[in-house]
Design brief:
about 220 residues, 6-stranded mixed sheet, 3-stranded antiparallel sheet
Length: about 220
Amino acid sequence: MVNLQNVCFGYTNGKPVIDNLSINIEDGAYLSVIGENGSGKSTLIKLILGFYKPSAGKISIETDRIGYVSQRIGNFNNKFPITIYELLYCHLRAIKCSDKNQILLALNMVGMESYRNKLIGNLSGGQIQRIFIAKALLGNPQLLIFDEIFTGVDEKTQIEINDILTKINKEGITILAVDHNLNNVYKNSSHILKLINGRGIIYNKETFMDKEASYASI
């Protein structure tokens, strides 16, 4: 699904943030990306999305049907008087999709179909995050990318969103998720990438957990 070969990237100070990284994300995988602050997690996401261009190496993606939910909807004005349906319809038009049925299907997948005529500004943070997951589902994506979407979300809502993401993945959609909560990571993932100074290797979940347990026992 996604292949990086010897990818490098750095900002203006010249220090590499992603350093000669080679990984392959398999079709249908649920890959969690973990690592300390500054390890390159969000930069990796932005490289895959094409927001940044690598200074060296190659990124190959087998699909252009990609949905994305950012860490927090930072530029979103939740005071703007727009209903959930109107918001999703605007995005549907933006991606040049004419199938309005996708809106209710996406809302149903995140358990928010009964809220379609509500103003989005009246929703809780967790409900808004569900709506933006529904937005990412429009256009029938083959790859979904999430950048720490649990930031500021309470534990109960995290569990509910985890169940949604697991269901989406089981329906064949590849998921790439930056997450700092290891409970989420171990529950959801099929594979894990731990970035350290822009470098890392993808492990299947069982191998990674065994590896981390062996380090902890030293």
